[in-house]
Amino acid sequence: MPNQVPPVSIEQLREAIAFIAETHQQITDGAQNVFVWLWEAIQGDFNGERSTGQIVFDSAISMIPGVDQVCDVRDLIANCKLIEEDRSNKWAWVTLGLTLVGLIPVLGSLVKGVLKLFFNFVRRTGGAAIAKAVDEAMTWVITLLRKREVMKYWRGVLRSDHIFGDLSKLIKVVRGHVTLPALLRAFDRGIRLIRNLVEKVDNIPFVGGTARGYLEMVEAVRAAARNHMGAALRPLQDVLDHIIRRLDLEDLLQRGAIVDTRNVHFRGTLPEARAVTLMRTTEPSPSWLSKGAGPHEMLDPSDPGLQRRLALDYADGYPKLTPDNIGSFHKIEAHDIVGPARLYRITSPGNGAAGDCWISEDVFHNLMKSSDPKAAWRKHLAVWPDWNANGQFVVMEVPEGQVLKGWKGPASSQVKDKQLPGKHLEGGWEQIVIKPAGNEFDTTRYYMRGGGHGEKLHPPGLSREEFQRLSPAKQKAYTQIRQEINDPRIKGPYETGWGTTDFDPQLRDARIGLPALPGQITNAG
């Protein structure tokens, strides 16, 4: 049965204690010395301000059967010490519950390690912003699961490649076991672990008395638990629900791969004149197009005060902005994207994967949870149909240790005063602007469009340099297609599920037969 493991070995005990004591000093051989060291480590204050790296390592070591027992003892004692300081502290009982979930026997070591990582991020919040904590933890869960040793382990445990979906299913089983009787039984199991370790040092002066004192403290909290743990059930279940939803979303992202080009219904990006005509004449008006003046005024690129402020940030290494970049913001500030982190970019087959405009993981999740994600994207990030046909997204994974300099702030409202008076795109959601290096931009190919059943693109197409040598009149006969994604941090493209059209008349346009170029086929890394 999962989580029913043999007693921890002396070598495993050394490894685990070295971590919880945050030291790698050598200890002398002999079982008794190891157990003495254990209790010396445990009686120190529990470090609630551990670094993210320590939290990830803690989660990884918790996947090792046997070693996880030491971590369970450490956490259980730390939780009970906090409760003894103030038994009315509701969040202390919830954090105890998080530890007890890890002691429920249905957990396998993989699920236990992943949950521990999520739980440690949630503990930091003190009960506030749980969804944000789960999102922050997700990046590190991915980092953990991609470690070679961990990947080898889970591929031996799980039978499919859909690890996030499988983890979600397993945690749903755990969620069903989060009841008061189950948590109390888990508490009793934890006490048995502590009692076994106390017996190893019971006759050693000073250490034995300290160990017995911890056991008595934990047993006293257990005696009070029935009256307090019931109130912790709902918050515990909420935490697990957040984790399940986040894993389901990650599974959706991984399964959303565009395997080939046959399932992409792309009709090209609308020319501005036609987009304006459709926005004027469509009844009812698109939900993303608002009347009146926009609430989020554009920044003025020529404002001397703004120019001076930006110049100071440019001197600190932040990328220089074009007037269009500046005008896309309502407010702006320099921003460091510290890895590991994920940025998202909505794109299309004819739009770059590498580009200036991105959104954070939080904004992307809000977008995908909207009742109409495409409308929310156009409205709140203020993207005209003639700028981006959408239908796809890509993910940039900023690796651990890398800092990407960029800009962030609410998107400004967008207007077309001459062509579309009295209408605007609202803006207001946070956008991020970065500047790819020259070798990070996509390779783009330009194809002449022809007739037939579905509008064909005539190979071999033109390179960007060849296309730019054409006259503007001749350029109109060509369609831009992403040939290859060159930035190794960018994964995708993935389908948004929104389609690439905004107006019903577009559905009568001929579908473009996309060539099977590397940039049109998902690269999931």
Which features would summarize this protein structure in a list?
2 domains; 4-stranded mixed sheet; disordered N terminus; alpha+beta; 525 residues; 14 strands
What does this structure look like?
The chain has two domains: 10-254, no CATH class; 256-520, no CATH class. α4 packs antiparallel against α5 and α10 runs antiparallel to α11 (207-228). A hairpin with a 5-residue loop joins β10 (443-449) and β11. With 525 residues, it is an alpha+beta fold. It is elongated. The two termini are 35 Å apart. The chain has helices at 10-20, 31-42, 52-61, 67-85, 90-101, 109-125, 130-145, 148-157, 163-176, 180-199, 207-228, 233-255, 272-281, 304-315, 323-327, 361-369, 373-380, 464-468, 472-475; strands at residues 290-291, 333-338, 341-347, 357-360, 392-398, 403-410, 414-415, 423-425, 430-433, 443-449, 455-462, 478-484, 490-495, 512-513. The strands form three sheets. The protein has a seven-stranded antiparallel beta sheet with strand order 2-6-9-4-3-5-13. A four-stranded mixed beta sheet has the order 12-10-11-14. It is built from 19 helices and 14 strands. Mean pLDDT is 79; it is low at 1-6, 19-32, 257-267 and 506-514.
